[in-house]
Amino acid sequence: MKYLFxxxxxxxxxxxSCVATNVEPQKTQLQIREFQTRTYDVESEMLVLKAxxxxxxxxxxIITNAESDLGLITAQKEASIEDGTEKFFQILFxxxxxxYKKNQIINSTANVSQFGKQVKVxxxxxxxxxxxxxxxxxxxxIEDEQFYQDFxxxxxKGIFIQKENI
Length: 166
Prior knowledge:
This protein has five helices and six strands. It is an alpha+beta fold and about 170 residues long. Strands 1, 2, 3, 4, 5 and 6 form a six-stranded antiparallel β-sheet that branches. Strand 2 and strand 3 (about 70-80) form a beta hairpin. Helix 3 (about 45-60) crosses helix 5. It is elongated. Mean pLDDT is about 90; it is low at about 1-10.
């Protein structure tokens, strides 16, 4: 048992020493807004609003509020993020004081508005993560550009499907 414990400590120290020190510069609010926003060459705000709602539902979000007059949709998605390995080692070393990631909630707010002969969509996602005791451990806006690109690619397909009545 003593050697197992020493081995775990050695692996932990080695893995910590291999962590890269490259830190990405903080994105400006303008940069974030740019990848959170997409403009569509359609004249129907309602068509785009429905496409956004459909994508959110397809992705497992529950629509919590939709105001078509304002072009506003809010939605929420909850998921378990519990890692069995992390949980095991936390309980092994800390017993009753163990803390480990348990679940996360992603909140989304979409604003769909007419912009001349186009429709503009701005969406943001906020992540909240909780530990096994219900304490908030992560709170922040999702700032991963690829996350938003993937979302808008699905909205693009949804708009196409609606325009073609498929």
